[in-house]
Amino acid sequence: MRDRKTNGREARARAGDTSALDLNLLRTFLAVYRTGSFTAAARVLGLSQPTVTTQVRALERQLGRELFERQARGVSPAPYADELASRIVRPLDALAEVTPGGTGAGHPVEPVHLAGPHEFLTRSVLPGLAPLVERGVRLRITPGLTEPLLEELRAGRHDLVIATYRPRGRALASVPLEDEEFVLVTSPARAERLGGPARIAAAGPAALHGIPLLAYAEDLPIVRRYWRHVFGRRLVRPPAVTMPDLNALLAAVVGGAGFTVLPRYLCAGELAAGALVLLHDPDDPPINTAFLVQRPGAVTNPHVTLVRDHLLETARGA
What we know:
This protein has 14 helices and 13 strands. The chain is α/β, with parallel strands linked by helices. The strands form four sheets. Strands 5, 6, 7, 8, 11, 12 and 13 form a seven-stranded mixed sheet that branches. A two-stranded antiparallel ribbon has the order 1-2. Helix 2 packs across helix 5 and helix 3 (38-45) packs across helix 4. The chain starts with a helix and ends with a helix.
């Protein structure tokens, strides 16, 4: 009798009926799907990693399908996992919402995994998190470069990524978040020695030949773009200092080390306070658009939607 019942449940599961499946197994599957890791899911659920692995394997046996493929770091969902997650996410999240304390049978609403450029997160995102924290949202924020962060998003390790460019193809969905304007800046002492912005307006970039150039990288990606867009010429000089951290470059320029090109949002306070001088104010400055990216059709807990809407509303009000 027990074997017939078990076989019946498995047959209904393979046919697409998930009502016969254990809710705890489905919750565990969803936690692994969202975090991209058995270990991370175990932390979210308050279980041991072997228990999470056992529950996922039990669900795979009931379904007769593989749900996850092991990677060098974490796991990636197998094709059927996307389909299963899309069918169970709303019922499970709704159940978690109505359970006292916001938990679903001991399963708290999971943290939202948000990633993006370090400087943008520091200046534009973190200062505005209070409303989300007040609503009980837990955040796990990861700084990094856009390309590897998008790969991790595809693998399910993040819920949302702020990207410095729009990803190609249909694997990821993106919406414009915020335009960042780039500005040419130096310290007041350097600007006075140079002759101020009027000298740049009269002589062009040649006026800067005696001033050390500070840059994000040896190939001058930000500064080269400014030169090409604003001055219509190629920048050929080597940098005096490189540092892959825009906050560090900002500190060095404020300290008088030379000049550089920075996003305006990063140095707006220093410009307003007089700690930096705007060397040039073109009618058409270089603009780069940041995008908010997530996987289309990927499941999200209710707090992911809260974070997404908050970021978009904050950007619109900026």
